[in-house]
Write a structure and sequence with these properties.
single chain, about 240 residues, alpha/beta, Undecaprenyl pyrophosphate synthetase, six-stranded parallel beta sheet, 6 strands, about 15% strand
Length: about 240
């Protein structure tokens, strides 16, 4: 069990956890299953992690659920993922609502199939007043796309005479990202042995702590989760500065 009080030298609580859920396909291959079976197994891990963040009083969880690059996968896999996303939202919505979780979306949501958007929008509406935690689903999401979209919004403000180019600063850019009211992630976890962030929260993760594990996402459990938290709470976060 993680003891947050033992984290000598740590600058603050873990409020926002971001996860790159990698390895569903490799897990399926390892077990002689279809790739979609790996994604179904990964869905069970999401439910497990939702219980763990509640247990550890983590306010925000962002899951990299479908990237702008994932459209390059086979049409069979993409269709299967969209159907799984739709059915997962429908089957788990009441439970998440009872737990007091608010569901938020991040990404180019308008690019998702209509039947998926309708389920997502229903989930957002139903949970919008919940206050016991926030689940942010990054869907059709890319960090470069997010910064590009922010730049377009700011360019439109300049064109319409609402701001001047010299008004642009980091705060203004942050205000035009997909979820400007959500704090930057404190910790980012990536499963399945890859050591990169793959275009995920590029702006927001400038000072995010990173933790990698070889465990495939369907096998990610309490032990892995608590190892990640132990690592985080034993780091000293200086944000570019230095304490005397």
């Amino acid at each position: 069990m993680v003891d947050e009080k033992k984290s000598a030298g740590h600058d603050g609580k873990l409020r926002h956890l971001a996860i790159i859920m990698d390895g569903n396909g490799r897990w399926a291959e390892k077990h002689g299953l279809k790739r979609i079976d790996g994604h179904k197994a990964g869905e069970k891990t999401v439910r497990r992690v939702l219980d763990l963040i509640k247990e550890h009083n983590i306010e925000f969880l962002t899951l990299y659920a479908f990237s702008t690059e994932n459209w390059k996968r086979s049409s069979e896999e993409v269709t299967g993922l969209m159907r799984l996303l739709s059915s997962s939202i429908e089957s788990n919505l009441n439970e998440m609502h009872k737990k007091g979780l608010k569901i938020r979306l991040s990404g180019r949501i308008e690019g998702l199939p209509l039947y998926v958007r309708k389920k997502l929008q229903k989930a957002v509406r139903k949970t919008e007043d919940n206050q016991k935690g926030t689940l942010i689903l990054a869907l059709n999401y890319g960090g470069r796309a997010e910064i590009t979209d922010a730049a377009r919004k700011i360019a439109a403000l300049i064109k319409n005479g609402k701001i001047l180019p010299q008004d642009i600063d980091e705060a203004l850019i942050s205000e035009h990202l997909y979820a400007p009211d959500i704090p930057d992630p404190d910790l980012m976890i990536r499963t399945s042995g890859e050591y990169r962030t793959s275009n995920f929260l590029m702006w927001e993760s400038a000072y995010t702590e990173l933790w990698f594990t070889d465990t495939h996402w369907p096998d990610f459990g309490r032990e892995d989760f608590e190892k990640a938290l132990d690592s985080f709470y034993n780091r000293k976060r200086r944000f570019g500065g230095r304490k005397c």
